[in-house]
Design a protein that fits this description.
heterodimer, A: alpha+beta, Ubiquitin-like (UB roll), DNA polymerase, domain 1, 2 domains, 5-stranded mixed beta sheet, 31% helix, globular, B: alpha+beta, Aldehyde Oxidoreductase, domain 4, 35 strands
Chain lengths: 153, 791
């Protein structure tokens, strides 16, 4: 495997990584940077637990080759709260009890954030369509939808 | 009814869950997130064959790569049952840490550990295994035929050898009263056969474990588990380690739904690798491995019920067959609870249960939310609707005449766990449910024409709250808590209980806060491990709040008595005249006498005084076996719309009412009901697994969503779900609380089946009721078959 040096920003910090062709973004974030908020749920893009934002767009980091994020801005769940201040959407998740086991939560919050960045005033259908690739087995999704919609208001 | 004097300051308040901030910021550490110094990684070699003798395992190539290898030859030859919730004489032991024979695709045959995951994967591929492939048995009926290859010749029951004939793992017959007499006195008798599917738990986190060797010869283990103490006891038994040298840590769990009620199969494998290599080792399974690890018990249930013309049940006869797959994890208990849930739904003057659990070469069956209850309730509640129809009685009225309520006998975990019902919100649940769904306006079943047809159906049920009962049974139910008061008036609660995400530990904190008169944000839940906590059996059977919380309540009462005793000394007031109440300004509890309010001391000041004066610690440890197992009742009313051309089913409205006694965490309790609906409608309409008959492989080939776990876009809209709680108080529970979690899903599939019957006039008896099945049955019905078609 050919290793290559890439430059990127992770949660606002510059990083220089030497990565092989088959290294995955999820593995690099978790093992190199210790950013374990992005989870391995399935490894094949079915569950959304590994979601991070790459240049503001949701990405399934278990399917993204690390070399492909050269020059990109990567935001993980650890980078969403700034200076110890929770993002309003994180607060909405807590207010609406949209967190149970919590394993899907980082992916759900980042998807919600990406949606709100794109559509500040989404309908319930928008939310359900945008987040349909993120599985949750605990909540039945209602509280998560409520969190994203109440944040809107 | 809630006692009028019960004024609560913490219980019933919606608060941010205490692990919430860690979970929304990504800081929460699950097993797969743990990294330790000098940590190696492990991978497991799994059988590609469903049924095969292992002739030889060659580890030389893998070892040449520097890997440490573990095979059947390395592990202690101790057979065990992964789930030690049943008492020892009722444990069927049929497995080793690594298999002596492959009995299902995905069975663990050998394992390797290496300094990196990539090196471990390389070593895994260097293992050579010679198999002698045997006949694959995927059908439980075929499994019982004469001449079918035995999957086991013998297993161990307790400490006795038990020979296995015709692949039947266990059989149970339970008979009460004279059913022949009962049926002879019936005006109507109905009998139908029902089938429920082997769905996957689909918890978000796959199984993992980290094991570190300690310099004294002991080990520290971070597992995915529902019970840290049971994991420790089993590891001690398998590896002959003294328990004080095994420390099992409580680690947050990414969903479980029963899938970790047993000690997960990777835990002793990882421990074996650590003991052999002296290395710290991490082992995390892939999703595909996890899908070959556990499924819900399927069932084929033949149910016969009789009733008088006045609508009173006379007798029932149930035959049940379950395909348990390759291991008997809890088949004895499964048959027990199937009979028990059935016996507790409706009063039956006579009943006979005949159950069989059969081995096949498939993924092992395992407890899943409701343990036998969704299966039994689907059959019983479907047939109850048909009986009501045959008798011309309203289905809700028919249920009210027959249900087991206040003063009745409830089987909380099969025939050996019984107690008397002390709280009953069923009439309120049914009355409000009917009102909310618009019950009187529902159509006549099967009367509609046109492409889109609507129907309203209901089903009721429950789950137990724990597995406690007045006398010892076949199931262990025991919890303990240690509580201490700190010098600033805060409190540490040390409890081994697992919280699966439902907020159980938040409930424990509120119960302790309530008893001690201290604000709940001053109650801390300590990290837990087996060295520093007393025994808690396992979070299962919807026992967390009722039984785990009961133990915490008992310890809190003792702590309160100590507090008041010392306060009496300081304040010069009789103990019985003192109260503790939270003081919002001070942010802690204050002890005072209402008649002399100036005589007061904060809990913190008292604790400090006790320390400086060397009076003693304000702390207590208590354990509790609840002697009741109260039913947490639930009622579902659903309205569906069926597209008869595509067979798709839309939930127009779902009303879910719960009698969980006092509601401790109101928002999380709603979350339990909404989550119960999601898993329940998945079970009712879409979720299933299929195994290839020849190879014994999953047809989904490890693709999770083929399963098919409902997605957000497939779930009912917010305005179409209505949840509510009965005004109920359980006298034996902490502050009147009982359970909720598993109850939330149990009657759901039957409610959908009954709503579909109302819409289409077709009785569906097999789950899931997929669009394909609906369309096929519509075609059959319209091609001249009878009005009521059985599918």
């Amino acid at each position: 495997m050919t290793a290559r040096t890439i430059n990127l920003n992770v949660n606002g910090e510059h990083k220089e990584w030497s990565v092989a062709e088959n290294d995955l973004l999820l593995t690099e974030l978790r093992e190199r940077e210790g950013l374990t908020g992005a989870k391995y749920g399935c490894g094949i893009g079915e569950c959304g637990a590994c979601t991070v934002l790459v240049d503001g767009q949701p990405s399934l980091s278990c399917l993204v080759l690390a070399q492909s994020v050269d020059g990109c801005d990567v935001l993980t769940i650890e980078g969403l709260a700034r200076g110890g201040e929770l993002d309003p959407l994180q607060i909405a998740f807590l207010d609406q009890a949209a967190v149970q086991c919590g394993f899907c939560t980082p992916g759900m919050v980042l998807m919600g954030r990406a949606l709100l960045n794109e559509i500040p005033d989404p309908t319930e259908k928008d939310v359900r369509e945008f987040l349909k690739g993120n599985l949750c087995r605990c909540t039945g999704y209602s509280s998560i939808v409520r969190a994203i919609l109440t944040h809107r208001r | 009814m809630v006692p009028e004097q019960q004024q609560l300051h913490s219980i019933g308040q919606a608060t941010w869950r205490r692990d919430g901030q860690a979970k929304v910021t990504g800081a929460e550490e699950y097993v797969s997130d743990i990294t330790l110094p000098r940590m190696w990684h492990a991978r497991v070699l799994r059988s590609p064959y469903a049924h095969a003798r292992i002739v030889h395992v060659d580890t030389s190539y893998a070892e040449a790569l520097g890997a440490v290898c573990l095979t059947h030859a390395d592990i202690p030859k101790i057979r065990y049952n992964e789930r030690i919730v049943s008492t020892p004489p009722h444990l069927y032991r049929d497995r080793y840490v690594l298999a002596d024979k492959a009995r299902h695709v995905g069975e663990a045959i050998a394992a390797v550990a290496a300094p990196t995951e990539a090196a471990a994967e390389q070593a895994l591929r260097a293992l050579r295994v010679e198999y002698e492939v045997l006949e694959t048995i995927t059908d439980p009926e075929v499994a019982m035929w004469d001449g079918t290859e035995p999957i086991y010749t013998n297993v161990q029951l307790g400490d006795q050898e038990l020979s296995i004939e015709h692949n039947i793992a266990v059989q149970r017959t339970i008979e009460l009263g004279d059913i022949e007499h009962g049926f002879a006195n019936s005006a109507v008798i109905l009998e139908r056969e029902f089938a429920t599917s082997r769905i996957y738990h689909a918890q978000m986190e796959t199984k993992g474990v980290v094991c570190r060797p300690e310099s004294d010869g002991g080990i520290t283990v971070w597992p995915t588990a529902q019970s840290i103490h049971n994991v420790r006891q089993l590891l001690g038994e398998i590896y002959s380690l003294p328990l004080h040298k095994i420390n099992v840590k409580r680690v947050p769990i990414g969903g479980t739904f029963g899938s970790s009620i047993q000690m997960n199969s990777v835990i002793p494998i990882c421990v074996g690798l650590t003991l052999k290599s002296g290395k710290t080792i991490k082992l995390v399974t892939t999703r595909e491995e996890d899908m070959y690890d556990h499924v819900r018990y399927p069932s084929r249930i033949r149910l016969k019920l009789g009733a008088t013309k006045d609508g009173l049940l006379t007798a029932g006869h149930m035959h049940a067959l379950s395909d348990i797959g390759a291991h008997n994890t809890q088949a004895f208990a499964f048959l027990s609870v199937l009979s028990g849930w059935w016996a507790s739904l409706y009063k039956l003057p006579a009943m006979k249960f005949e159950g069989k659990a059969v081995y096949t070469n498939k993924t092992p069956s395992c407890a899943m939310q409701g343990f036998g209850n969704p299966q039994a309730t689907f059959a019983v509640e479907s047939l109850m609707d048909d009986l009501a129809d045959a008798l011309g009685i309203d289905p809700v009225e028919f249920r009210l005449r027959n249900y087991v309520g206040l003063g009745g006998t409830f089987w909380g975990q099969g025939p050996s766990v019984q107690s008397i019902v002390l709280s009953d919100g069923v009439p309120e649940l049914l009355e409000k449910g009917m009102e909310k769904i618009g019950w009187p306006g529902r159509p006549v079943s099967g009367s509609q024409t046109g492409r889109y047809r609507r129907g309203i159906g209901m089903a009721r049920g429950f789950h137990t709250s724990g597995a406690g009962a007045p006398k010892p049974g076949e199931v262990i139910d025991y919890s303990g808590a240690f509580i201490k008061v700190n010098e600033d008036g805060t409190v540490d609660v040390v409890h081994a209980l697992m919280d699966h995400g439902g907020g159980t530990l938040d409930a424990i904190a509120k119960i302790v806060a309530e008893e001690l008169g201290i604000p709940s944000d001053r109650i801390g839940i300590s990290p837990a491990d087996t060295l520093t906590t007393v025994y808690d059996v396992v979070t299962h059977a919807t026992r967390g709040v009722y039984a785990g919380g009961g133990a915490a309540h008992k310890a809190a009462r003792k702590v309160k008595a100590i507090l008041l005793d010392y306060a009496s000394r300081v304040l010069g007031i009789e103990t019985n005249a003192l109260v503790i109440e939270p003081d919002e300004t001070l942010g802690q509890g204050v002890i005072y006498c209402p008649s002399f309010p100036e005589r007061r001391i904060t809990v913190g000041a008292l604790a400090k005084l006790c320390q400086t004066n060397s009076w003693g610690s304000i702390a207590a440890v208590e354990s509790l076996r609840q002697v009741n197992c109260p039913p947490a009742y639930v009622a579902y009313f659903v309205e569906v719309e069926v597209d008869t051309e595509t067979g798709s089913v839309r939930t127009v409205r779902a009303v879910i009412g719960s009698d969980c006694g006092t509601v401790v965490n109101p928002d999380l309790a709603v979350g339990q009901l909404e989550g119960g609906l999601s898993k329940g409608l998945g079970y009712a309409l879409v979720e299933d697994n299929s195994w290839e008959q020849e190879s014994g492989r999953l047809l989904s080939k490890g693709f999770w969503v083929d399963g098919k776990t409902p997605a957000m876009s497939e779930s009912p809209l917010l305005e179409d779900i209505d949840t509510f709680f009965a005004d109920s108080y359980e006298p034996s529970g902490p502050f009147g609380a009982k359970g909720i979690g598993e109850a939330a899903t149990n009657p759901c599939a039957a409610a959908y089946g009954n709503a579909l019957y109302n819409a289409l006039g077709i009785r569906f008896t097999e789950l899931p009721i997929t669009p394909e099945r609906i369309v096929a049955s519509m075609v059959a019905a319209e091609s001249g078959a009878t009005k009521a078609v059985l599918v």
